[in-house]
Hints:
By secondary structure, the protein is of the alpha/beta class. It has a domain at about 5-125 and about 160-185 and about 250-260: Rossmann fold. About 40% of the residues lie in helices and about 20% in strands. The chain contains 11 helices and 11 strands. It has helices at about 10-25, 50-55, 70-85, 105-115, 140-145, 160-175, 190-205, 215-225, 230-240, 250-255, 265-270, and strands at about 5, 25-30, 40, 60-65, 90-95, 120-125, 145-150, 155, 180-185, 190, 210. A 7-stranded parallel sheet has the order 3-2-1-4-5-6-9, with helices on both faces. Helix 1 (about 10-25) packs across helix 6, helix 3 (about 70-85) packs parallel to helix 4 and helix 7 runs parallel beside helix 11 (about 265-270). It is globular. The termini are far apart. The structure holds NADP nicotinamide-adenine-dinucleotide phosphate. NADP nicotinamide-adenine-dinucleotide phosphate binds near residues 32 and 64.
Amino acid sequence: MSKILVVGASGTVGTSLVEALRAKGHEVVRATSQKPGADQRLFNLVTGEGLSAAFTDIERAFLLSPPGHTNQDELLAPVINEAKAKGVKKVVLMTAMGANADDSLPLRKAEIALEKSGLAYNIIRPNWFMQNFNSYWLHNILAHGEIQLPVADAKGSFIDTRDIAAVAAELLTRHDFDNRDFDLTGDESLDHNQVAEHLSRATEKTIRFRDITPEELRAQLLGAQLPAPYVEVLLTILGYFKLGYAAGITDAVSTITGRSPIRFAQYAKDFRSAWVR
Ligand SMILES: NC(=O)c1ccc[n+]([C@@H]2O[C@H](COP(=O)([O-])OP(=O)(O)OC[C@H]3O[C@@H](n4cnc5c(N)ncnc54)[C@H](OP(=O)(O)O)[C@@H]3O)[C@@H](O)[C@H]2O)c1
């Protein structure tokens, strides 16, 4: 059976995607920017190391831009060119909901490069991940019992990364949706007080939401060593969240996978151990 290359294979989405593809019987090559192990292939999108061999024997590929970088078009354009040159049959690119708001945004430029490449493709644009509450936003939940974000009572249709992986696994192995783009969301829109209630219920602890200023979050993220330009991008898109742009719901997950998206209550139950320590 032909091989599928997964970029970001050790990440939140990639780990579930590799599992889903292997469960369907596909042979997966896991790309990594670290020292590669047995089923891995060295491929660093930032340095270009491994690019010339990345697509050897590869029929289909999943691409993302590693977090922390704001020049996503510069990172992904050479990868798309190389995939085309090596005769890859299909590429699924994960960007982010809102990436197509403006053609001058780096993520949108990467999407356009893929659209114009002549490769069969899908672009998936997930909304904010549920799993941010057990990763990016975990520190304040454990240290203060609080989700601290500058978003007031705006709602978001958060998506479980296992659903993103399920969608990507379908799109990589089917052609009936070729050359289409999809915004991926959950099927309910919640504000952060409701998120905190779900986490409290699942953990039997009191977890609250506190609306903080963008300046407070900037200080926190810089203190956690995130690169300054990336922090500014995060603050900008959280500003859009506060304005309501993350609240919309699409039916893409059920259209592509044939089942409903995972609900926040289920996510909170499944990841309970992250907040109970
Ligand atoms: N968090 C959200 O709410 C959200 C919402 C929408 C979209 N997104 C998008 O999701 C993507 C992140 O996905 P994720 O959360 O699944 O990833 P993640 O868990 O943050 O993991 C990052 C992955 O990137 C790989 N990586 C790091 N540096 C690399 C490099 N220089 N070259 C190649 N690979 C590299 C890492 O693998 P190695 O260390 O093995 O190289 C790892 O597998 C980003 O593009 C982000 O914009 C996030």
